[in-house]
Write a structure and sequence with these properties.
The chain is mainly alpha-helical. The chain folds into four domains: 178 residues, HUPs (Rossmann fold), CATH 3.40.50.620; 108 residues, Alpha-Beta Complex (Glutamyl-tRNA Synthetase, domain 3), CATH 3.90.800.10; 41 residues; 101 residues, Orthogonal Bundle (Arc Repressor Mutant, subunit A), CATH 1.10.10. The protein is 43% helix and 9% strand. It contains 20 helices and eleven strands. Helix 7 links the parallel strand 8 and strand 9. The structure holds glutamic acid. Glutamic acid (GLU) binds next to helix 6.
Length: 513
């Protein structure tokens, strides 16, 4: 086997959707598993769609996900430059070689002429106009026009493109690691543009020239590129580079949560979950998106989740560290059918990984959303108390809001059930005793409360739910003793004082009502 060299080849046209991260991940896992190289190549030849911040976004996203690059614009490497716009000179010669051996041709149709052809096709009932073998004879190109005329046109630097000449009678067949043998009829393929009027290569030309020049062994990419692969195979052949065709693995689409249709970047706001690794802020708020990171996810959770969108290890095991993924990963275990995006599963993974983190680490994830008045150590402790009860780091702040501010709402049903006004004075004495403690820590509070219950004959059920309702407003949450230790004796006293009066009122209303 040739040395494994794989590339992640995004076009910097905006934020990178998680589908792109999954592609990068599979490439990364494959490279690491086989001791190969993982290359970042920026396919930025389409200057009309170029977005300058996108490159940084891509690199930051890969970095956050822990997908370290071996070669790329920042790392360098023996096959650079790694931005296609910096390799412009390389491509033209390849296109010209295809012309020279009759596999490509010059086309000089203007945009207006192409439009007219499209309209004429439409009028004849053909709505999916393609510049293909049936159309090329109607076009203005070196197949239909006088050679001398074209030669002079090109020599005088008037605008022209170079198109691939598809052999319409052939069936193009190649083997895909995921899909097996795949065939496309030449008669159904269009004569793709290889070199544009601005002298820039199209995706197709630059992509195969670079895969060849960078000695890429395996092309692992989304299924949407499958039909382009037929064009690519023809181009390798046209260049006499058949022996250099990489192995292909086309990974299945990521589907909407409903299972119908491809997951799109707009689905995030539609279904209320992130579809980008990191937030993307555009001028137009409609084009801005929240990222998994900002939504309170850990990168290892996103990675574990994405690994399973299309691949599975063939066992029951679901939790995989990056190293375990590298060990287990195989292109042969990638499925053919679309993978449904299941946000609940992403949350499930994230909860698992959050539980394994220290409070201090979770605190860092949400620090910028919390007032400066809350100290780092307080926030860390709050995260420790809440981490088993949340799926996203940010939920520490909303689900556990009562650790940071007074109760906003009491669970009235439980207050009616649990609150016995006749116990108020006994509980108040308990609070006074607690206030007198030397160290107000969870263990000591618990000992003191238990001791007091024994002494007074009150039951756990008379006191603990009341404290819980008074301090948090709800019946579930972290240990009541931990919570008391965290918010402190003064806060416990002031919350309970207010709670008693609210509770008595609720009780009174219940009796009257
Ligand atoms: N530039 C293409 C993209 O944006 C790369 C496709 C490929 O991997 O060949 O996805």
């Amino acid at each position: 086997m040739k040395p494994v060299r794989v590339r992640f080849a995004p076009s910097p046209t905006g934020a990178l959707h998680i589908g792109g991260i999954r592609t990068a991940l599979y490439n990364y896992l494959f490279a690491r598993k086989h001791g190969g190289k993982f290359v970042l190549r920026l396919e930025d030849t389409d200057r009309t769609r170029f977005v300058p911040q996108a490159e940084t976004y891509i690199k930051d996203a890969l970095d956050w996900c822990g997908l370290q690059l071996d070669e790329g614009p920042d790392q360098g490497g023996s096959y650079g430059p790694y931005r296609q716009s910096e390799r412009k000179e390389i491509y033209k010669a390849f296109a010209e070689k295809m012309i020279a051996n009759g596999n490509a041709y010059f086309a000089i149709d203007t945009p207006e002429e192409l439009n007219a052809m499209r309209e004429a096709a439409k009028a004849a009932g053909n709505h999916s106009f393609k510049y293909d073998h049936t159309m090329r004879i109607n076009g203005r190109n070196s197949l239909s026009l006088d050679q001398a005329y074209i030669k002079e046109w090109v020599a005088s630097e008037k605008p022209y493109t170079i198109r691939l000449k598809i052999p319409e009678k052939e069936t193009i067949t190649f083997t895909d690691i995921v899909r097996g043998e795949v065939s496309f009829k030449g008669s159904e393929l269009d004569d793709k543009i290889l070199l544009k009027t601005d002298g820039m290569p199209t995706y197709h030309l630059a992509n195969i020239v670079d895969d060849f020049s960078m000695k890429i062994s395996h092309v692992i990419r989304g299924e949407e590129w499958l039909s382009s692969t037929a064009h690519h195979v023809l181009m390798y052949r046209a260049l006499n580079l058949e022996d250099h065709i990489p192995q292909f693995a086309h990974i299945p689409l990521i589907l909407k949560p409903t299972g119908k249709g491809k997951l799109s970047k707009r689905d995030g706001s539609k279904f209320g979950f992130p579809v980008f690794p990191l937030s993307w802020n555009a001028e137009n708020p409609e084009d801005s998106f929240e990222g998994f990171r900002e939504a309170g996810f850990l990168p290892e959770a996103l990675i574990n989740f994405l690994a399973f969108l299309g691949w599975n290890p063939g066992t029951e095991q679901e939790i995989f560290s990056m190293d375990q993924l590298i060990e287990a990963f195989s292109l042969n275990q990638i499925g053919k059918s679309g993978a449904r995006f299941d946000y609940d599963k992403a949350l499930w993974f994230n909860q698992h990984y959050l539980i394994g983190r220290q409070g201090i680490e979770i605190a860092k994830m949400i620090r910028n959303q919390v007032s400066d008045q809350i100290s780092d150590s307080y926030l860390s402790k709050a995260c420790d108390l809440m981490k088993e009860r949340v799926h996203r780091a940010n939920e520490v702040l909303d689900k556990g809001y009562f650790l940071f501010e007074p109760v906003k709402e009491y669970d009235q049903k439980n207050v009616r059930k649990r609150w016995k006004p006749e116990n108020q004075s006994t509980i108040e004495v308990l609070l006074t005793r607690l206030e007198g403690m030397q160290s107000y820590d969870a263990q000591d509070i618990e000992t003191m409360v238990k001791q007091y219950l024994e002494e007074t004959g009150l039951k756990f059920g008379d006191v603990l739910p009341v404290l819980r309702l008074g301090l948090a407003g709800i019946m579930n949450g972290p240990s009541i003793f931990d919570m008391m230790a965290l918010i402190g004796a003064d806060e416990v006293r002031s919350r309970m004082t207010r709670a008693f009066s609210v509770f008595n009122q609720i009780k009174k209303d219940a009796i009257q009502g």
